[in-house]
Amino acid sequence: MLDVGPGIIIPGHANTFHEVEFTILAFKPTLGEVVEGHVVEGVDFGVFVRLGPLDGLVHVSQICDDYISYEQVGNRFIGKETGKILEINDQVRAKIIAVSLGTGRSGKLGLTMRQKFLGKEEWIENDIKNEYDAIKAKQVKKKEEN
Hints:
The chain is of the alpha+beta class. Helices cover 17% and strands 43% of the residues.
């Protein structure tokens, strides 16, 4: 709060009423925005990611570009071919693909992590390394051709 002015009392009300000056930080998600958060819940159809005041759903088909299976015992997702593992409390980067905001916390956000440079932090680091290696290989090939 920046400033609270003098209040008034209205007979019959238990509260006092004041003019208040304040600053607010708001989050209005937009389609295509890349956001960071952490996994707070895993269910058989996907994971919920906490993005500050809102949670977003990453459907199982949007976790990564692989066949994903859900292990209820460990409450985690595992990629069949890549071996990628996603668990509760993992930090992730995702892109907003659907926004349906209601009142309060009833809004819904759809997220994806299937694209390069999205997903769990170690997946992103691996994507960066692979991209760097590919660029270096192209440069070496180009030098050999000349």
